[in-house]
Amino acid sequence: MAYLWIALAVVTTICLLNLLLIFGMIRRLREHTALLSKMPTGPTTTDLILPAGAQIGSFSAVTTAGEAVSTASFADGTLVGFFSPGCAPCRERLPEFVDYAAELGGRDRVFAVVVADVAAEATATIDQLSDVARVVLEKDEGPVAAAFGVKGFPAVGLVSADGTMVASGSMLSGLPRPAAV
Questions:
Q1: Which residues does residue 159 pair with via DSSP β-bridges, in sequence order?
Q2: Pairwise CA distance, residues 117 & 119, whole Å
């Protein structure tokens, strides 16, 4: 009978210690939740590129075909896109961008920027875009991406001839369909 009382005391002690540990974990989880709620979040899909109505910054660059492009080289309703070869959403949305660009009827109304630190990584993306767009290859945080305020990929938009963003986002479904030339 004495062994039964000893076993009961040991089990009771273990249960009380377990209960104390659970209360401690709950308190720590509440602290972590409060800290996480105060943390800044990453850019949303509307923050990836300058919003509609914003003026793009000035830039000049050379395309992969050797053409000079600048802020002044945009026609009204120019489609712009920023892609990174290592980005899974970019790979998913690239065919849709190519189809949308083909509807516009000319490379002069489509401008794409491929952002990669190593040019060899961007070859496949550039090949897909070069038939329908003027393509610029630049390193991370390059002058073109800075002019458009790009903070994430993919980022797409429509630009007017005066350099104002008409519409922008991360998906083409949010852009109006301009008339082909």
A1: 78, 165
A2: 6
Per-residue pLDDT tens, the chain, 181 aa: give them.
Answer: 888 999 999 999 999 999 999 999 999 999 988 887 776 554 445 578 899 899 999 999 999 999 999 888 888 889 999 999 888 888 899 999 999 888 887 788 899 999 998 888 888 999 999 989 999 999 877 899 999 999 888 999 999 989 899 888 888 877 776 554 4
Number of H helices, E strands in the chain: 4, 7
Confidence (pTM): 0.72
Residue 154 phi, psi dihedral angles, 5° rounding: -75, 150
Looking at residue 110, what DSSP letter applies? E
Q: Take residue 31 and report the two structure tokens written for it.
A: 């602290």
User: Helix (H, G, I), strand (E, B), or coil: what is residue 138?
Assistant: strand
